[in-house]
């Protein structure tokens, strides 16, 4: 497992932040986060997907929410200082972040974007986020992740 070196893994190692990797077989027919959660044996509320959106005022922002939840665009716009947000189209994702759909990590994007993590992350000692490729998850303390990313913990999901 130590042979897996995504950009996210390298950056966390260089910063001395403890994490584990959860690796699983990718099913191209089911790239959902709920499937990823099942494959690594964690409940979906503890596995966070990384969503990238473009605000009308402040440009690109990154949102991490539990995989079975839906991003509340109004709430996300408000916390990121925008009036409105639109999800970035999947074909733009690689150019903006360096990652592809199903393997987009909040760690190690091409540029540092403002990042927001759903406040439910504090309910867990560790959460999972993509490690930067399909079939690989970072298991990390939410406090360590947020501190490393400079991320705010806020309410992001639809009630």
- Give the mean pLDDT: 95
Strand content: 25-35%
Fraction of helical residues? 10-25%
Structural class designation: alpha/beta
**Rg, Cα atoms, Å:** 14 Å
What's the name of the CATH homologous superfamily? Answer: YbaK/aminoacyl-tRNA synthetase-associated domain
CATH fold-level label:
YbaK protein
Encode the helix/strand succession as letters: HEHEEHEHEEEHE
Strand ordering within the main sheet: 4-2-3-5-8
Biggest sheet character: 5 strands, mixed
What do these coordinates show?
- There is one protein chain.
- With 159 residues, this protein is an alpha/beta fold.
- It has a single domain, classed as YbaK protein.
- The protein has five helices and eight strands.
- The protein has helices at residues 7-14, 33-40, 73-79, 90-97, 142-149, and strands at residues 20-23, 48-55, 59-66, 85-87, 115-118, 127-133, 136-140, 152-154.
- It has a five-stranded mixed beta sheet with strand order 4-2-3-5-8.
- Strand 6 and strand 7 (136-140) form a beta hairpin.
- The longest helix has 8 residues, at 7-14.
- It starts with 6 loop residues before the first helix and ends in a 5-residue tail after the last strand.
């Amino acid at each position: 497992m130590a042979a897996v070196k995504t950009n996210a893994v390298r950056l966390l190692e260089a910063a001395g932040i403890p994490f584990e990797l959860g690796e699983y077989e990718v099913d191209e027919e089911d790239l959902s986060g709920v499937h990823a959660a099942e494959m690594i044996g964690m409940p979906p509320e503890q596995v966070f997907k990384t969503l990238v959106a473009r605000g009308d005022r402040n440009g690109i922002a990154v949102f991490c929410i539990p995989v079975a939840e839906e991003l509340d665009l109004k709430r996300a716009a408000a916390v990121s200082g925008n009036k409105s947000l639109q999800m970035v189209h999947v074909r733009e994702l690689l150019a903006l972040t360096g990652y592809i759909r199903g393997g987009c990590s909040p760690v190690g994007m091409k540029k540092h974007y403002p990042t927001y993590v759903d406040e439910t992350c504090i309910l867990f000692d560790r959460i999972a986020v993509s490690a930067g490729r399909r079939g690989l998850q970072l298991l990390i303390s939410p406090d360590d992740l947020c501190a490393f990313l400079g991320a705010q913990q806020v309410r992001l999901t639809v009630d």
